[in-house]
C-alpha cells in the first residue's frame, strides 16, 4: 500500500529529475522504466501514468535539459539586465555552476543517436549565437565576436569533458579572469 501512496504523489517532473540523475550517473542505457521505478520505490504504473513509453520519457528528459541548460539560462541573463559585459559575466558565472555530468551524458548519447545529435547541434548553435551577440554588443566585429564566443564555450565544454574541478571558488576566479581577457578591447 505504501508504494501506491508514494506512486500517486510522484509527478512527471519527479520522473524527469530521476531520469536526468540516472542519465548523468550511468548513461542513457540505464534510463529504463523498471530500474527507475525500483530506485524511486514505486511501481511501473506510476511511470505509465505520466509517459506513454520510454521514448516519450527520453524526449521529456532531453527537452528538460534543453530548457534548463539553454533557454532558462538565457532568460536569467536577460532578466538581470545591464550592458553586454555584465550579461557575459553573469552567463559565464552561471555556466560554471554546472558540474557538466548531464551535458557529458547528452553528448555521449548523441554519438549513437542522430536525433540527439541534431538537438545538440541546435543547442550548441543557440548558445554560441547568444554569446556571440553579447560580444557584438560589447563592440567586437562579427568574426572576433564569434571567435571569443567559441573560446569560452569550447573551454567550458572541454572542462566538462575532462571533469569539472570541485573547487567552486577557483572556477569562479578563473571564469572571471577569462571574462576580463575576452571582453577587453585592444
From TrEMBL:
Keyword Ion transport set for record: no
Keyword DNA-binding among UniProt keywords: yes
GO molecular function: DNA binding
The entry's keywords: DNA-binding
Domain HTH tetR-type: 9-69
Transmembrane portions of the chain: none
InterPro entries reported for this sequence: Homeodomain-like_sf (IPR009057), HTH_TetR (IPR001647)
DNA-binding region range list: 32-51
Protein name from the UniProt record: TetR/AcrR family transcriptional regulator
Organism from which the protein derives: Adonisia turfae CCMR0082
Amino acid at each position: 500500500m505504501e508504494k501506491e501512496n508514494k506512486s500517486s504523489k510522484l509527478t512527471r517532473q519527479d520522473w524527469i529529475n530521476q531520469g536526468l540523475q540516472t542519465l548523468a550517473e550511468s548513461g542513457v542505457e540505464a534510463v529504463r522504466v523498471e530500474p527507475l521505478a525500483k530506485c524511486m520505490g514505486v511501481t511501473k504504473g506510476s511511470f505509465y501514468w505520466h509517459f506513454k513509453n520510454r521514448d516519450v520519457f527520453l524526449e521529456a528528459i532531453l527537452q528538460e535539459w534543453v530548457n534548463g541548460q539553454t533557454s532558462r539560462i538565457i532568460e536569467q541573463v536577460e532578466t538581470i539586465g545591464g550592458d553586454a559585459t555584465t550579461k557575459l559575466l553573469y552567463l559565464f558565472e552561471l555556466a560554471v555552476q554546472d558540474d557538466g555530468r548531464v551535458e557529458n551524458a547528452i553528448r555521449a548519447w548523441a554519438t549513437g543517436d542522430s536525433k540527439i545529435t541534431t538537438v545538440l547541434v541546435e543547442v550548441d548553435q543557440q548558445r554560441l549565437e547568444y554569446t556571440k551577440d553579447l560580444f557584438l554588443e560589447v563592440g567586437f566585429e562579427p568574426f572576433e565576436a564569434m571567435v571569443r564566443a567559441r573560446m569560452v564555450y569550447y573551454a567550458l565544454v572541454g572542462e566538462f569533458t575532462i571533469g569539472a574541478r570541485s573547487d567552486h571558488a577557483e572556477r569562479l576566479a578563473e571564469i572571471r579572469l577569462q571574462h576580463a581577457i575576452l571582453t577587453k578591447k585592444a
